[in-house]
Specification:
RNA binding, globular, 6 strands, RNA-binding_domain, alpha+beta, 3 helices, 114 residues, four-stranded mixed β-sheet
Length: 114
């Protein structure tokens, strides 16, 4: 999925569902383990600017962690679902307040096992 920016609005383009095998998920979890969160949601929550930052981080790194510091489980799950839906990324895993996302870029930096 690509996101186009026009007049500071997000437009979702070319929405495709990605599926990963268990072997690929385990591989990505291993790569994500030493990573630090690259995006931290603040008091304003999930804003358009945060989504743009997440999209840019996914384009650069392909595999990122995002920290959502909220104590309400339902709110946290809704934010996680919204991030996955709006970015078109694959949710590798969630641990506490952190979600790990993967989205292959055009450069294909991470070579997934078959």
């Amino acid at each position: 999925m690509a996101v186009e920016y026009e007049n500071s609005s997000l437009y979702l383009v070319n929405c495709t569902n990605m599926t990963l095998s268990n072997k690929q998920k385990q591989y990505l979890k291993g790569l994500a383990h030493p990573l630090k969160p690259v995006v931290l949601l603040g008091a304003n929550g999930l804003t358009e600017g945060v989504l743009v930052e997440i999209d840019q981080s996914l384009n650069i790194h392909e595999l990122i962690k995002i920290k959502v510091p909220t104590n309400d489980r339902e709110t946290k799950q809704l934010i996680f679902d919204a991030i996955v839906r709006e970015t078109g990324a694959y949710k590798v895993q969630t641990i506490g307040h952190i979600i790990v996302l993967y989205r292959q870029s055009e450069e294909k930096k991470i070579q997934l096992p078959r």
